[in-house]
């Protein structure tokens, strides 16, 4: 058993490296990253564009595999999972919120969220879906299609969809990247609440201000983790953020 | 930006879409290939016939004695030369007699023989044969008993290159099998029935042998001649027709110009009528393929809309924006044509193999049909270009903002979205996905359904046409051969008094239980401007042994004619109508054709137009009394058909004795080329349906890459995604199949009502589609739509989730 897990970490990375080999040369997107994230906290992965944030998140979410190193999440060795196990892991352990929302255009808000509950195999997914949309204050837009919703509303549906899975780890890649300030704050507040409610939330951003609401800030630069610490000046409420 | 830039960009797009372009191109290639390939074979058959007639020196004219009576050979030749007055440069006398032939081990294969005696001593320079197996006979065999056997008959029964046959009971050796230009027709009339290669054995023999067999020493009854170069055969024939009765008053002689010979015309006519049928199917397939290509190209162009939007936003002129998608279309078109050439060649060769096996010709000329391929190529180019021009034109005309709208947000903007919203479907969201996808983009779904329907419809039409002709032939055979029990059909070598010893020997044989005699003759029936050739059986119209039972029950009065339903329909007559009957009438030693007005007495349900009956009492109209040339026999209980047939065919005066059943495959033989080619159509259509479904699934996969990636990110299994694709494809497929069955039936009806009557006027094809044909069409369609989405499984498995999900639209 890895020492991180013994110390109560829900996500633990050990010497994780990711190399992309392309005809134009090899890119080291992540360079022997070692990290340990305690459960039920909000982690912000901070770094400039191209520093390897998305790569890190994708590997934790089993969307991608590291070239080297070991990843453990919620007691599972992600790097050892194969085929069907990786699908099951994605169904039952992690869940995603994308920068581009990636809602299903042909499903209404409610149905998109319903999908999340179903994918994770939850019982009575209909009730879960409704409750989650109400939790993101979209109880009045249940039957709207994505194209009938604003960007912020779409992202809230996306968050509801990942919450509907009931999975313990929520991975959000630049969830406010497409949104204006006020809407962004709304989204961040939602994520903050979830972390308070016992979920582990990983938010990836290039925005240093957002890092101030984190319990833990992981700083990335050029594929290397250059710092893991609580924000200087303590954790702020999302409402106090300014950018 | 220069052309090089656009080409490079387009080239990268092409590489990305290579399989897609190839699959659409393959659809175009198959469509134009069927067109060019099927068309080529018809051209080849015509050219090969021409070459055969030229190379084997087919006669220009034939002088024959229709009564079969022979004259001394030398005198007959001299008379012809004299009557022609130098217009004939070469002439050869032959003795042609009809005698029963038996072939195979122990003489197990009976046939109606046509024994052609030729003067081997002088050499055969007109109507030469081509040896297909074994060897020929020549001057050294002039007085021998070695003969040659027609290849059609030998091939039908898989006879070896050499062997023994009996002619009217006498055993001779055939040393080779040959094809001869006069006997290329697969079918001939035998009395009032038609007969195929299986039951007609043409034998080429030394004339001395035939003279002995026929009891006509030194005799000949046929002259084939070549006319002086530059002279017209028609003019020389006129000359002969006028002069011969003076030169040879004792015997009636007919003069036929080969080019006008109905048998020769039938050879060419068969090619063009089959071509007409093939044209219909080639064009149907081309249309289906064209529509599918249009539809798919349209979707590919649609998916480039965002690039178009970006270019518009950057202020690139519309015309320049249109270059790239049009280049893609051009690439598809060129690839289609490039693949179409080998496809056309392959289909052409395949069809040629089938035809060579079914319709052997001594000489095959198969030059490349550049013209047809050119038309095919032009169609192959025009279809995808035209198919893209419209969507491209539309795409460059929309507002840039609209064009820029990410595709994953464009869905659901349709009017039907409100319907979908209200639609409360059972099952999980993923179970509902297929139906949603279909309903949300109704135009696209409709186009896919239409494409599948258009591709499959010709399959049902082709199968239905085969079923209908088979059913028709079955009905026709029941009329000809009698549905109840087998009978022996006997034709005599000439006219015999009905109480002659020869006839009594046949009808009074110990082996015979029941017998009826008749007089078979050819003629034609005219009403208004329509004329129909008929083969008249003059028999006892109340005897169910010789006429269909339904007719026998009607107690038809003599003094009129009974026509087939098809002839009645074509002539527009019904019982009671008057028609002009052109029939032979005895004059001196020969017959002359005269016209008599007779009433139509009844109509029989025969799909064969040529079937006609008259009462034997009416033979007075032919100027004869108590003369017969055919008989129908039923064996005594315990006597086998084979035994009866063997006994009868060794009797004098018998030209042929064949079980009615053995004739019933003839029409099937005639249509076997068509049926064989329908097998090819099935293969092509199956491939097309698959390609269309595959393309549709592939484009769908591209359009839905982001959705699929999201689902995979949520842990949905690949097989679940494939399942959604299969269900969607199957729903569309089932709709397409349903539509195709309706459409196929409509087209079949049109083919039977308009194409067949013009192509095969002798046959009234009854519409009849077997259930298995519907099933086969549905299975081909279902297989295609079910399998195609499975092919994108690998793509889903290897799809890079990070990069598919990452792109910010
Ligand atoms: N599929 C890939 N092939 C090659 N290089 C890649 C690929 N994906 C990401 N990279 C490179 O890896 C580095 C990190 O990328 P990414 O994790 O997306 O950065 P971030 O999310 O921090 O902006 C970048 O330099 C990027 O160019
Ligand atoms: Mg990123």
What would you say this structure looks like, in words?
- With 243 residues, chain A is α/β, with parallel strands linked by helices.
- Helix content of chain A is 30%, strand content 28%.
- Chain A contains 7 helices and 10 strands.
- Chain A has helices at residues 3-6, 53-60, 83-92, 109-119, 125-135, 151-164, 181-196, and strands spanning 9-22, 25-38, 42-46, 68-73, 76-77, 94-97, 169-173, 200-205, 216-221, 224-229.
- A 6-stranded mixed sheet of chain A has the order 6-7-8-3-9-10, with helices on both faces.
- The longest helix of chain A is centred in the last third of the chain and has 16 residues, at 181-196.
- Chain A is globular.
- Chain A starts with a helix and ends in a 14-residue tail after the last strand.
- The mean pLDDT of chain B is 85.
- Helix content of chain B is 53%, strand content 21%.
- In chain B, strands 3-4-11-6-8-7 form a 6-stranded mixed beta barrel.
- Chain B is α+β, with helices and mostly antiparallel strands and 809 residues long.
- Chain B has 4 domains: 1-59 and 265-405, no CATH class; 66-252, no CATH class; 416-481 and 667-809, no CATH class; 482-666, no CATH class.
- In chain B, helix 1 (3-16) crosses helix 9 (318-358) and helix 7 packs parallel to helix 20.
- In chain B, a hairpin with a 2-residue loop joins strand 7 and strand 8.
- The longest helix of chain B is centred in the last third of the chain and has 42 residues, at 718-759.
- Chain B is elongated and about 100 Å long.
- Classes of the chains: A alpha/beta (243), B alpha+beta (809).
- Chain A binds chain B through residues 54-55, 58, 61, 63-64, 84, 87-92, 95-96, 98-100, 102, 104-108, 111, 114-116, 118-120, 125, 143, 145-147, 165, 177-178, and chain B through 408-413, 417, 420-421, 428-430, 433, 436-437, 440, 706-707, 709-717, 801-802, 805-809.
- Bound molecules: adenosine-5'-diphosphate and magnesium ion.
- Adenosine-5'-diphosphate is lined by residues 20, 22, 27, 29, 47, 49-55 of chain A.
């Amino acid at each position: 058993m890895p020492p991180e897990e013994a110390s109560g970490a829900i996500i633990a990375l050990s010497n994780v490296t990711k190399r992309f080999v392309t005809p134009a040369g090899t890119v080291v997107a992540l360079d022997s990253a070692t990290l340990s994230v305690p459960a039920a906290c909000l982690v912000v992965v901070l770094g400039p564009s191209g520093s390897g944030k998305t790569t890190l998140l994708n590997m934790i979410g089993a969307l991608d595999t590291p070239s080297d190193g070991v990843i453990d999440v919620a007691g599972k060795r992600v790097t050892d999972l194969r085929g069907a196990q990786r699908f099951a892991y994605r169904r039952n352990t992690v869940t995603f919120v994308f920068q581009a929302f990636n809602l299903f255009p042909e499903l209404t808000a409610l149905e998109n969220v319903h999908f999340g509950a179903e994918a994770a195999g939850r019982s009575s997914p209909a009730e879960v879906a409704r409750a989650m949309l109400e939790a993101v204050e979209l109880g009045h837009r249940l039957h709207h299609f994505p194209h009938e919703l604003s960007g912020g509303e779409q992202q809230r549906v996306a968050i509801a969809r990942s919450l509907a899975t009931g999975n313990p780890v929520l991975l959000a890649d630049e969830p406010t990247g497409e949104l204006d300030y006020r809407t962004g704050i709304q989204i961040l507040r939602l994520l903050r609440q979830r972390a308070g409610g016992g979920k582990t939330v990983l938010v990836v951003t290039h925005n240093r201000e957002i890092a101030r609401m984190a319990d833990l800030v992981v700083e990335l630069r050029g594929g290397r983790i250059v710092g893991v610490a609580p924000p200087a000046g303590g954790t702020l409420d999302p409402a106090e953020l300014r950018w | 930006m220069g052309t090089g830039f656009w080409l490079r960009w387009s080239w990268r797009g092409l590489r990305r879409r290579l399989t897609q372009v190839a699959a659409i191109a393959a659809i175009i290639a198959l469509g134009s290939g069927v067109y060019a390939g099927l068309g080529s074979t018809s051209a080849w058959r015509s050219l090969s016939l021409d070459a055969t007639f030229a190379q084997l020196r087919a006669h220009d004219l034939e002088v024959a004695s229709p009564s079969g009576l022979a004259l001394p050979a030398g005198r007959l030749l001299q008379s012809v030369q004299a009557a022609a007055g130098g217009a004939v440069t070469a002439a050869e006398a032959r003795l042609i007699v009809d005698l029963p032939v038996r072939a195979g081990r122990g003489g197990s294969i009976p046939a109606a023989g046509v024994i052609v005696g030729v003067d081997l001593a002088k050499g055969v320079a007109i109507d030469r044969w081509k040896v297909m197996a074994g060897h020929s006979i020549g001057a050294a065999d002039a007085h021998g008993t070695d003969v040659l056997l027609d290849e059609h008959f030998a091939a039908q029964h898989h006879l070896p290159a050499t062997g023994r046959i009996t002619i009217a009971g006498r055993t001779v050796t055939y040393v080779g099998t040959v094809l001869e230009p006069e006997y290329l027709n697969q079918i001939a009339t035998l009395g009032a029935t038609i007969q195929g290669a299986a039951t007609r054995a043409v034998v080429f023999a030394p004339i001395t042998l035939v003279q002995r067999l026929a009891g006509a020493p030194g005799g000949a009854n046929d002259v084939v001649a070549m006319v002086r170069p530059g002279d017209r055969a028609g003019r020389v024939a006129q000359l002969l027709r006028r002069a011969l009765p003076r030169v040879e008053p004792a015997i009636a002689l007919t003069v036929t110009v080969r080019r006008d010979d109905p048998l020769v015309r039938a050879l060419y006519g068969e090619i063009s009528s089959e071509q007409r049928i093939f044209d219909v199917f080639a064009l149907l397939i081309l249309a289906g393929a064209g529509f599918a290509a249009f539809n798919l190209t349209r979707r590919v162009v649609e998916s480039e809309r965002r690039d178009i939007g970006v270019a518009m936003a950057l202020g690139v002129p519309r015309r320049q924006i249109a270059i790239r998608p049009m280049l893609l279309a051009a690439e598809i078109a060129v690839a289609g044509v490039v693949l179409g050439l080998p496809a056309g060649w392959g289909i052409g060769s395949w069809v040629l193999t089938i035809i060579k096996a079914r319709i052997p010709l001594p000489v095959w000329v198969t030059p490349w049909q550049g013209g047809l391929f050119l038309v095919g190529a032009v169609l192959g180019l025009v279809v995808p270009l035209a198919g893209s021009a419209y969507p491209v034109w539309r795409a460059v005309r929309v507002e840039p903002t609209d064009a820029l709208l990410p595709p994953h947000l464009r869905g659901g903007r349709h009017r039907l979205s409100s319907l979908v919203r209200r639609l409360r479907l059972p099952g999980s969201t993923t179970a509902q996905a297929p139906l949603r996808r279909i309903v949300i983009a109704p135009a696209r779904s409709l186009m896919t359904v239409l494409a599948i329907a258009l591709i499959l419809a010709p399959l049902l039409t082709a199968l239905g046409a085969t079923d209908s002709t088979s059913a028709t032939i079955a009905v026709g055979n029941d009329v000809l051969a009698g549905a109840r029990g087998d009978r022996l059909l006997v034709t005599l070598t000439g006219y015999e008094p009905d109480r002659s010893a020869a006839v009594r020997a046949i009808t009074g044989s110990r082996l015979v239980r029941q017998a009826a005699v008749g007089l078979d003759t050819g003629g034609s029936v005219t009403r208004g401007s329509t004329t129909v050739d008929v083969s008249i059986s003059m028999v006892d119209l109340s005897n169910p042994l010789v006429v269909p039972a339904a007719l026998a029950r009607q107690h038809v009065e003599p003094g009129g004619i009974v026509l087939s339903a098809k002839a009645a329909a074509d002539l527009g007559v019904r019982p009671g109508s008057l028609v002009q009957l052109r029939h032979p009438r005895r004059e001196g030693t020969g017959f002359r054709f005269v016209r008599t007005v007779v009433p139509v007495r009844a109509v029989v349900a025969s799909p064969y137009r040529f079937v006609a009956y008259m009462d034997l009492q009416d033979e007075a109209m032919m100027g004869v009394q108590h003369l017969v040339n055919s008989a129908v026999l039923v064996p005594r209980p315990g006597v086998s058909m084979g035994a009866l047939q063997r006994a009868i065919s060794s009797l004098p005066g018998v030209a042929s004795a064949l079980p009615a059943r053995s004739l019933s495959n003839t029409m099937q033989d005639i249509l076997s080329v068509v049926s064989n080619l329908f097998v090819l159509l099935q293969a092509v259509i199956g491939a097309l349906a698959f390609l269309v479904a595959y393309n549709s699934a592939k484009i769908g996969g591209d359009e839905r890459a982001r959705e699929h990636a999201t689902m995979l990110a949520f842990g949905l299994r690949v097989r679940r995604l494939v399942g959604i694709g299969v269900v969607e494809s199957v729903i569309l497929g089932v709709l397409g199949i349903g539509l195709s069955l309706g459409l196929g039936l409509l087209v079949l009806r049109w083919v039977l009502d308009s194409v067949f009557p013009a192509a095969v006027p002798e046959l009234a094809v009854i519409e009849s589609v077997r259930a298995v044909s519907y099933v086969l069409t549905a299975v081909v369609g279902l297989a295609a739509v079910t399998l195609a989405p499975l092919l994108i499984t690998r793509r889903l498995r290897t799809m890079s989730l990070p990069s598919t999900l990452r792109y910010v639209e």
